[in-house]
Amino acid sequence: MASTDNVYFILTKKHEWISFAKAGSIVYMPENKFISEMKKSPPPLKLRMRLMKHYSGMEYDLEANDMEQLCVEEAELLQAVPDDAERLRCFRERHDLQTAMQFVIGTEVTVEEAGKKLRGIIQYIGPITNGSISCPIPGSFIGIELQGPDRGKGQCDGTYRNVRYFTCDKNCGVFTPFNRVSSLLPSVQEPSLQSERLELGDRVTYFIDDKCRHGMVLDLLEIGGRCFVQISTDKDESGKTGGEVRVPLEAVVKGELTAEGESMDVDTPPEADTDYLYMGLSLNSMVEVTLGEGNTYGIIRWIGKLPDRSETMVGLELDDNKGVSDGTFKGQRYFNCPMKRALFVKLSSCRPDSRFQSTSTNHNEKMQPEDTDQTDHSTAELQTVPPMSTEQVEQLLTGRMKGIQGHCNSCYMDAALFSLFSCSSVLDSMLFKSTTPQDAPIQRTLLNDIVNPLRSNGFVEGKHIMKLRQQLQKHGYSQSFTTDEKDPEEFLSVIMHHILALDPLLKLSAAGKVQESYCYQIFLDQNHRLVLPTVQQLLEHSFHSAGLKLAEVPSCLILQMPRFGKKFKMFDKIIPSLELDVTDLLSEGPQQCMVCGTLAQVECIDCFKDPLFSPSGFKVFCKKCSKQVHSHPQRLSHKPESLEIPKGYVGRKNPHTMIRDKMELFAVLCIETSHYVSFVKYGPNTEDWIFFDSMADRQGETDGFNIPEVHPCPEVGEYLKMSPSELAHQAPRDMKGVAKRLFCDAYMYLYQSTTMCLYR
Known about the structure:
By secondary structure, the chain is α+β, with helices and mostly antiparallel strands. It has 15 helices and 43 strands. Strands 25, 30, 32, 35, 39, 40, 41, 42 and 43 form a 9-stranded mixed beta sheet that branches. Strands 4-3-2-1-5 form a 5-stranded antiparallel beta sheet. A hairpin with a 5-residue loop joins strand 41 and strand 42.
């Protein structure tokens, strides 16, 4: 198995009873299994892992909270470090690991050998042993050719175990893990100015035009053979705060010095306390700061005092890689985020994110502080806004800056909420049901800030979605709700089950037992013959292969299409079923013989895939037709089973007036290249479809904002009228408008029962 077929983690805590599962050990599992586990709701607390270099090949259930995920390159470099404790230290401190990931052939470095630092040039980066089943990543080593006076102090000539990786003179080569290698970039400094290596995030003093200034290290650069330091300035030469400057390394001193070169007195009276001016900002507030050429945006993850700083500081998790660490400052961890996303600045340098201010003419109007869990809502009036009618959709909901405004990987939530609430009321009960006091703010945000504005104005600002994400994150369901992309089913499960305690939408009967769920993932057996399936066929085949029935007709049915993860589709096209007939999927209730139409008494599982019969529908018969059907030599081995017939129907032979239970399609979520969009059926006609994208366009760059868009897509109706054979000949690239996305990229189908929703 290739290294890229696995997902790798490093243990951050020693396992209690597995002695060789030490903190710092690298573990792994197949990527497809990991994706499958992560799609479960809620995500599992334990993952079944294999330990690197543990030759038994056994799998162990390890706590998910006791490990952190690695990219393949990180795992390769760390695997070369022989000691578990040292490996964990390298991972936590990150600087050397991140530096090593930037190494290229020809980089000038020093390598530690026998307590001495030897100068050399990198000539090779990669494995020097072969991988195996128990160790798919053998470790990435650094091959160095020693230079100058250090030549001859090495161990080889570029070979290891008779395999040549580079060429150099005898005893001039060294193979070593990355943690013993240092780039010369931070070491070619004048001793009078700097005796310690600079680290990202260090406070420094720099000199421009003989003037002494202070700032923080953002990056270390080598340009044209010279070393430079990128510094976030306290004040630039014009007196402006919050800028950036690039200074030659020889003009930078670690620490804060006065103009005379002496250390600043840490007892210097602090600046006037103006924190009260910024009390509208708190943990998880979305803010912007000015750095260098423009604004940078992020979320406050930490507020407090830093060593040697008298002002109140904040730790920001930035939207992009403009930071200096992964949440550490001078070796001390304050919060966790991806590398190069953390930045520590003064609280007074932060402003509310202007991208989420009111879209009215007053763009400088400040955002209101977010609703807190302590807010008293007991006296607030619940306002009910019904879903949009066909006419309202055409008048209020279509156009640019319509729908829900997306921001920072929110498309999964935007598409789900738009699909559920814009034109349907099937799940409105979750907006009004009684809930606990700690969960009430989330329910009210959903109702007052999202659903009602969407239905009354046709637009929801991105700040309201972020407010909901912040509230979910505060409740502890995920530490990445405000930043990371997630799946719609994960979000819906948290809202319906964990927050609002909504009764499960789906009750499934299997072997006499009833199982409950909120969504249904369609799985197919390997022997299915479907090529261009309808949603009806997919659901029936999935129920057939799993031996499932519906215990009752659901008011809302959320179906996830069969896929291999988010990236790989099982079918090139899926035909939407505008109506889903669930009559034959019910575990109880009268059914009609598929041959003569009288009351069905038996069902044959073996006939389900018989090509003689229709491609959809379970195969149920009256006793007379069953006897005739199974008299055929090819069906003599079939074993029909008796159906449970309601008492009121016993003795009735002609249930032609029986009403079939059908559900209607009202929305479809689609995904392409990890971006979710949605289609909503808003009217009775076949062409009454709208397409919604929360990030259809963007105004500006890093300091801009996303433009959501809703537009009609009547072309969908044209393709729904086609026969399966006609659809099969439609090349996706030639399909009109956005129809291709509905037929080819469907991720989740939403159906409602107009009858059952009256009782739920």
